[in-house]
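User: We ran a pulldown and think these components assemble together. Before we commit to crystallization trials, I'd like a predicted model of the whole complex to look at. Sequences follow.
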Amino acid sequence: MSPLLFLIPIALTLGALGVVAFLWTLRSGQYDDLDGAAERIFLDDDRLEASHDR
Amino acid sequence: MTTGPNITASALPASLPPALLSAFVAPASGRAQQLELLVEGVHCANCIRKIETRLAKDPAVTRARVNLTLRRLSVEWVGGPDHAEVIGETVRSLGYAIAPYDAGSIGASQDRTGRELLRCLAIAGFASSNVMMLAWAVWAGQAQDMPASTQAFFNWLSALVAVPALAIAGRPFFRSAFGALRAGRTNIDVPIAAALILATAISMMELMRHGAHVYFDSATMLLFVLLVGRYLDFRVRARSREAIERLAMMRAEHATVLLGDGRTEIVPASAVEPGMQVVVAPGETVPVDGRVTSGQTMLDRSAVTGETLPELINPGDEVLAGYLNGPDILHLRAEKTVAQSHLSEILRLVEQAQLQKGRAATLADGLVRIWTPLVHAIALLTLFGWWFLGGADLPTALLYAVTVLIIACPCAIGLAVPAVQVNAIGGLLRRGILVRSGDALDRLAATDRVVFDKTGTLTDGRAELVDMPSNPVALRLAAALASASRHPFSRALTRRLGRGAAAEDVSETPGAGISGLVDGKPARLGSAAFCGAAGEGGDAASEVWVSAEALSPQRFALADSVRPDARETVDYFRIAGVEISILSGDRLPAVESCATSLGIADRRAALKPAQKAALLSGWKADGGKPLMVGDGLNDAPALAAAHVSASFGHGVPATQVAADFVLPAEALSSVVVAHRTAVKAAGIVRQNLGFAAIYNLALIPVAVLGLVSPLIAAAAMSISSILVTMNALRARPPRLGAAG
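Assistant: Here's a predicted model for the assembly, 794 residues in total across the polymer chains.
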């Protein structure tokens, strides 16, 4: 019984961290252009992003 | 308005005048300026790279990012708003058509709704998976003598996760339900909200009483499943609506105004005042109603009135917004503002028709109206039955009543109907067919009469050569003279005959014909009188004659040819047992010949927009469910008045606003795909609702008797949701060429 007392809250906390991370990605607009994200991995010119898309 | 009915939407904005982007610039943070542009033709990583690297070379630009999903470009730069024109020109020079994006309030609230739903979905997903995990442990524990204290601990943890999650993620449903209740109505969200709130409250009560019936898992899962349906539904509708708005934005109307000092300025058409001088270049659309002051030209009125033959316009004649200019420059004095124009009158007719129509009741609406009070009544009966007759205490009676609500909660309607619509609408969207709303599919499936417009719908909407002389000399002369003119008939000849030899000394007499020297000898191309031929043929076709000294007049016949896929479309509806009619604004002979060639008996010609709408309203009043297909401005009121309607991507924007379906340009047969999909989707919806009825009939009595445990409720709910979703996956449009 006693391991459950801390293991399950830990599991729930880790899960909640995942949700918080998801909400953060949502807020920062990472789901606004899903098609573009799929295509952008083919662009190997990182300087463009670094200098002009802060 | 198009520069020719054969041009697709994507090709149009190339003619957009450049000096208009500055008006859409918004100030960004600091001294920066920001502009959102719609970009047509971006579809891969290479397009992104081309546009972004090119703009990055501009020292003023601080940020340029292409959104491939929305096909939008967002640019920020430091400097004046005028720099927008430079940026626009840069993107245009790369070969992409652009138009300013006018977000308005709709776009912003759409984004917010989408994000809120996704946020709720994430929270509900987290809560339902974790609560389910704890619930399974308790169920297993009940069978294997788990200590009551451990069960209580798990249940309290469930409550800790579920209650805040329900409070946050349930808000879209609570808001809608309370909104409906305040207005004295009920909607599908009322029973959902009731089930969620009561299930949570009852579970908390059970928790306090150390009872075993804790429904946190059912409540969170119900919420999660319904949110999935809601989110999918939102995505597809948002994409369709966005695509329709985009069509309109890509076609914003502009006018070239002649200023007092002789300069010209390009302004939005809505800024033109009566009395202003407007210049209309060849191939441009007339922006406002007005009177011609100078210039003589042929105007194509097909988009406004449905008449195929171009009309000769002289100074002093009245022209209407939406006419397409022919070969010559036209100067006109505006007589009305855009708000008072013929176009706006048509739009008012559209609004009237839409008001009268109201919202068609769908199958699901009807079911909810019967089902909601019924379930609430059964739940109440259960409560009082157990409390007064069954001898149970109030908490137990309440528990049984809530179980009824949870079991009967409309998963089949809340998830199954949207899931079918999402599949059908999403599939159609991939085929280029835009659907305005989910219930449009319902209405299309019920169609019992299809009404076609002629010009631009059943036909190409432009004159094509249908008959020509066999004499090679005549063909050679005609080709040479025709290539020197931009008259619609000449262009039809050029399309068929090629450009031919060069003609010299060409002069064109508007309304009569062209004369010139071909191989050094005089020749004429034009009307019968112009070429000295006898009499005009009185049939539906128009004619052009060619003559020379050594050549007696020879006749070319032109007609607005029937679309290649019109035949199969009409045949499909005939086999489907649907009545077919033609309502056209064109002259009777032209309508007769088109109707005869397609075998359509019911045809009416020379109809005004209001008459078309009245005919459709008449059919509807007789209990009919007409489908209207049209593309012209004169069809817009009829589209709005019809039970269900379809327009084309190449049509005038007013028709796309009025129509339920927007078909890809030049593809009449896609109305067949839409109809087949709609019929199939309606069948699947009926199956799903039937399944839901069986499920409820079987389980509600069990719940009323108080025999349903949380385990049974959870299992029943997941199995029914999965079954119904799997069935909904079949609702995709049929493959091309597949039998229906």
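The first strand of chain B starts at residue 26 and ends at 27. That may be worth checking against your pulldown data before setting up trials.

User: Thanks, that helps.
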